[in-house]
Design goal:
CATH architecture: 3-Layer(aba) Sandwich
CATH topology: Glutaredoxin
Radius of gyration: 16 Å
Shape: globular
Structural class: alpha+beta
Order of helices and strands: HHEHEHEEH
Strand order of the largest sheet: 2-1-3-4
CATH superfamily: Glutaredoxin
Length: about 130
């Protein structure tokens, strides 16, 4: 019976995943237009950030859309299909939960932020 449920939910994900990604692609928001020097500074600052995500996770999509609205070039890591990123999220972050924003400070210390609403609020406060 357990195999039946696994197969059922895998099938649902296989059907809905592409539909969700297509809808996200069609409705992608426009980013903020900033002067070149200001955008360059923000790009440099955002190199300290990395987003761990699953492609079709609704909360990850919500976070990516916010990043797009703010015109942020944050490194993205697929923790669903890439075992190295998945293991790093689990070992260093402590949980296998997405979305997760890894914030590295100047001294190399990492802070892991897990809630999409907190991540979006942090990005808006820092880059708006």
């Amino acid at each position: 019976m357990k195999w039946f449920f696994r197969l059922f939910f895998k099938s649902i994900r296989a059907i809905l995943g592409p539909v969700i990604l297509f809808g996200d692609w069609i409705t992608t928001p426009r980013g903020i237009k900033r002067p070149g020097e200001q955008q360059k500074k923000i790009d440099e600052d955002s190199r300290q950030l990395a987003l761990y995500e699953f492609k079709t996770c609704p909360f990850c999509i919500k976070t990516r859309r916010s990043m797009k609205r703010l015109s942020l070039n944050i490194e993205r890591h697929d923790a669903q299909h890439n075992q190295q990123h998945r293991q790093q999220l689990l070992e260093e972050g402590g949980q296998l939960k997405v979305p997760c924003l890894k914030i590295t400070d100047e001294s190399g210390n990492a802070t892991w932020m897990y809630e999409s609403s907190q991540i979006i609020q942090y990005l808006q406060e820092r880059y708006s």
